[in-house]
Design goal:
Helix 2 runs antiparallel to helix 3. The chain is 30% helix and 42% strand. The relative contact order is 0.27. With 115 residues, the protein is α+β, with helices and mostly antiparallel strands. The protein has a four-stranded antiparallel beta sheet, covered by helices on one side. The protein has one domain: Alpha-Beta Plaits. The protein is elongated, with a radius of gyration of 19 Å. A hairpin with a 2-residue loop joins strand 2 and strand 3. One of its GO terms (molecular function) is small ribosomal subunit rRNA binding.
């Protein structure tokens, strides 16, 4: 008679939404004025908090020159944020970044490994 093993199922997380830590860098069009830049960044940051996540740190690097032209632009406003978020928040952040004409590039990196 086979023996049932429940050890594997006991290691799975029970309910709730699993939050992970991410570092997100995005580059905004440098030709925007301060008010427009703040509007773009606030809208992007709101997608994380509206989906149950939190923004742990915002690091504004300012306007930097590119190594090569991107979409006929030579400069961009760099922002790096550290967030704790679920997948839905990160996917929505990426979706809004892709459809925005003011966001030039985006990179999302998971900073903590799953245990």
């Amino acid at each position: 008679m086979p023996v049932l093993c429940f050890e594997r199922s006991q290691k799975r997380p029970k309910g709730g939404v699993h939050m992970k830590k991410y570092e997100i860098m995005y580059i905004v069009n440098a030709s925007l004025d301060d008010a427009a830049f703040k509007t773009v960044s606030d809208r992007l940051h709101a997608t994380i908090t509206e989906n149950g996540g939190s923004i742990d740190k915002v690091d504004d690097w300012g306007v930097k020159e590119f190594a090569y032209e991107i979409d006929h632009m030579k400069k961009g406003h760099y922002v790096v944020i550290n967030v704790t978020a679920n997948n839905a928040g990160v996917f929505e952040f990426q979706r809004l970044s892709r459809i925005s004409n003011n966001v030039i590039r985006i990179m999302v990196v998971k900073t903590e490994s799953e245990k």
